[in-house]
Amino acid sequence: MTALNPVTAEVTARIIARSAEDRADYMDRMAEARALGPGRGKLSCANWAHAFAAQPDGDKATLRNPNAPNLAVVTAYNDMLSAHQPYERFPDIIRAAAREAGATAQVAGGVPAMCDGVTQGRPGMELSLFSRDAIAMAAGVALTHDAFDAALMLGVCDKIVPGLFMGAAAFGHMPSIFVPAGPMTSGISNAEKARVRGLYAEGKATREELLDSEMKSYHGPGTCTFYGTANSNQMMMEMTGLHLPGAAFVHPNTPLRDALTAAAAKRAVEIRDGGNDYAPFASVIDARSLVNAMAGLLATGGSTNHTLHILAMGRAAGLRITWEDMDDLSRVTPLIARVYPNGSEDVNAFHAAGGMAFVTRTLLACGLVHDDVLTVAGQGFSRYTQEPFLNNGALAWREGAAESLNRDILRPADDPFEAEGGLRLISGPLGRGVIKTSAVKPEHRRVEAPARVFDDQDALIAAHKRGELERDFVAVLRFQGPRANGMPELHSLSPVLGLLQDKGFKVALVTDGRMSGASGKVPAAIHVTPEAYGGGPLARVRDGDVIRLDAEAGRLDIAIDPQELMSREAAIAPPAGRGYGRELFGWMRRAVGPADAGACALYEAV
Hints:
alpha/beta; 24 helices; 16 strands
């Protein structure tokens, strides 16, 4: 066995030490829940009859047996979200597989699943991050019927998987298996898509031409094929051991995908309490498995959104993770993948080049992840060096690629694209934040220029249309933090800023908001905290202040004395937006914690 990298070991040890009290309390709660036994055994006859009144007669016979396993399906299905449309078929597949295993399965509840691709630049984006916490609560409502032995969590996209994870953590005495739906087949090239978007931003392409291009890119069932938050979610669930090995990137509506879905149901029966291989969520998820998730995120250049989500996910399981943990891991974790927007090819090409089995193998070989973990597939992370296939129609696993099949997309950890990972912590007089370096060319990682300050993204776009941004500048976009307006993604700015960078201008973005996991080549210091709302440093920046963003050094500086900066009168935040459901989430804006604690509204008072 390869020795664990000393930094990986040290980061893991300090997470354990920092979390000792919270983790002990969490594990005590899970032990208490387990000791009470399966929920249905505690229910009165009337309660239990309600639970299966609408089930088929064949299932009712099984459900009458208080010892027969019953699986919960918590689904994020809707047919607007392409990544989740395939889930329409999954409950029937799961029910049939459960019956074969002598069990039953019920859809315990649904959770919301909004598409950030639809809401980019729209008022609905202000609900996006908070939907993660709403999903966690909805999953809790589904599972609190207390009638289940294990859970199958059906979700793919941005906030859905972290929310389902947090909900599952509250029922950590039970096993939970996350069941992906897979990516859509590849459409037009990412380069062509970006070209048309750039032309539209310049006014050189019509809306019809843009729509035609977008429809050729997003064209069928499955996850969008760029390596954004949705596909980073699938990578992370595999790295934590909550997927079956190799499940992440198999296309939907294929025999292999259906076989993996059925196998997840049968495996959930096996790993329940009372089964042959008990593997509760609380034992699968610990400091080691979350360090593995962070290593995978850094090695593959995954989404910046997970610098928020992993912190909130850890908190749900009694684990306190910090940006410093991620930054230290990034210093020793090499960048081994180039997937759009960090490269030219998509996740389907990544999967074909060796995919998750290769990533797991090379990180294990270099001691950058823990092998001594429990997974839903059994003991040991080395199980995830295997890939699934159909052998005469039957699901089986074989060893995955030992070498990359395309070194332009995927490389071994001892010969990486870059020596360090794709995310970096930045700090300075303007606060703390993160920057995604994997998609930014080295020559663009240091920008020093006068500030141009905006209070909303529409104002920046309007300034560009007026021709006011044809110069070097650092865009300071403030009042986009969680307390101000829910911390929306600002991906709509990417074409404008990218166009200006392509013209030769030195351009950067500094914001207390988020960028999409699909954002790329323009250097962006995001999630800056303290946020401007409430008087953080960004509220005191003025047009013309010289700002220096140095991603390599991890610095965010302003060319005035910090005391002078903070002596300035703070700008006043615009009033909260009205309509589009935003009033429903006002309590979350008031309760939410800072970005460097996960921007979560659920745990700050705990």
